[in-house]
Amino acid sequence: MKIGIVGLPNVGKSTMFNAITNAGAECANYPFCTIEPNVGVVPVPDNRLDELAKIYNPEKVTHAIIEFVDIAGLVKGASKGEGLGNKFLSHIREVDSIVEVVRCFEDSNIVHVDGSINPTRDIETINLELIFADLETIEKRIEKTKKLLKADKKYEQDLQTLEKIKAHLEEGKPARSIDFKDEEVELVNTTMLLTMKPILYIANVSEEQLVDVENDKNVNEVKKYAEMENAEVIPLCVKIEEELTVLDENDKKEMLNALGLNESGLDKVIKASYDLLGLMSFLTAGEPEVRAWTIKKGTKAPEAAGKIHSDIQRGFIKAEIVSYNDLMKEGSMQAAKEKGLVRSEGKDYIMQDGDIVLFKFNV
Questions:
Q1: Which of 34-38, 74-78, 92-96, 251-255 has the lowest mean pLDDT?
Q2: Which long-range contacts (CB under 8 A, 24 or more apart) does 188-193 make?
Q3: Residue 9: in which H helix or E strand, if any?
Q4: What is the pLDDT of residues 117-132, one digit of tens each?
Q5: DSSP 129-182
Q6: Coil, strand or helix: which one is 100?
Q7: Residue 240: CA atoms inside 13 Å, Cβ hemisphere, count?
Q8: Rounded CA gap, 4 and 39, in Å?
Q9: What is the rounded distance in angstroms from the CA atom of residue 284 to the CA atom of residue 291?
């Protein structure tokens, strides 16, 4: 599952990518520094694994992972091929969701591609280019569906749905903000629209803005726009986050405390991105390994077992499950069993985030 980091040139995209991944993506003060996307795989922060490690003293601890893609900066006219428009759009098509970095800080040393700081304008520049690209896609699909409709009336509903999407896009609104009926969803999923991808906004602020970020005019501009899409906004100072990545754990905690923060902004971004994809983790714990396994929300126990090994899914008998909170409260698996907190679940059980599982199987 891939998260695409997008934004106008010089908003802090590549700096944030570097801070998230420590991958050393090139970062310079001119447009289109990023041409081919940089890719980094990072662990999802999860304190539960650290706490379980204190109980089991495992040989290793393995976090869930998520993949970030640093995509070239976009400019007005990208949908018509301006700048690196065609490459930008093709790279966006390959990711599962979008993290959009919006510049909210003033700095005369860093050129803004449009000459001034205006978060709403910047967001609309990117989102409108995606909308224009989607309009082109939808218009072609409508044309094709009209031809099919001449031969078969069953395509009437498809045409109505496509025209509804077109009207919404023409109002300058992303497709993700449409409330689709259940019978429309299957068709919508086949359109591969860019504006259907879930989105998270990052308001990139200065250290000074971070002090009173809740009342910052530029950040609140981003929040107001995001509300229309029910999207989350995470304010962070990319410059500080970059500094935090080179510190050891003690110095990092000291700096976060000095800034009045419980966790780094990047940890919030990674967790929110994981959630944005509709993902969650179930856990396995023992002396060899404490591990988080990534599954989609709504996954049933046998499919979750298949994440570990296909044989476990094929020969699934049952899952012995205790919630993370119950295990930590009791202090050991044995104590949890004595309290009747370890459950035996069958094939129809829907996994919950933080389930600690032992799968029983026979092949």
A1: 34-38
A2: 188/161, 191/137, 191/138, 191/141, 191/162, 191/165, 192/93, 192/137, 193/134, 193/137, 193/138, 193/165
A3: none
A4: 899 999 998 888 899 9
A5: HHHHHHHHHHHHHHHHHHHHHHH-GGGHHHHHHHHHHHHHHHTT--GGGS---H
A6: strand
A7: 22
A8: 9
A9: 5
Cα–Cα distance for residue pair 160/31, rounded to 1 Å: 41
Predicted local distance difference test score (pLDDT) of residue 31: 36
Distance CA 159, CA 190 (A): 14
Residue 189's identity, in one-letter code, is N
DSSP secondary structure string, 266-288? HHHHHHHHHHHTTEEEEEEESSS
What letter would DSSP give residue 15?
Answer: H
Average pLDDT over residues 313-325: 96
Supply the DSSP symbol for 317. Answer: E
Q: Which helix (DSSP H) or strand (DSSP E) does residue 116 occupy?
A: none
CB 44 within 8 A of CB 281: yes
CA distance 134 to 184: 17
d(CA 208, CA 206): 5
What are the beta bridge partners of residue 300? 350
Given the structure tokens 């602020």, which residue do they identify?
A: 205
Q: Are 63 and 270 in contact (CB under 8 A)?
A: no
In DSSP terms, 86 is beta-bridged to: none
Q: pLDDT tens across 262-308, in order?
A: 888 888 888 898 988 999 999 999 999 999 999 999 999 999 999 99
Task: Choose between 232 and 15: higher pLDDT.
Answer: 232
What is the distance between the terminal CA atoms of the chain, rounded to a whole angstrom?
30
Residue 362 phi/psi, 5-degree rounding, is -150, 120
Give pLDDT, residue 28.
Answer: 38
What is the DSSP code string of 219-275? HHHHHHHHHTTT-EEEEE-HHHHHHHTTS-HHHHHHHHHHTT-SS-HHHHHHHHHHH
| Residues 236, 201 contacting (CB under 8 angstroms) | no
| Contact in structure between 99 and 6 (CB atoms under 8 Å) | yes
Residue 348 token pair: 């129809």
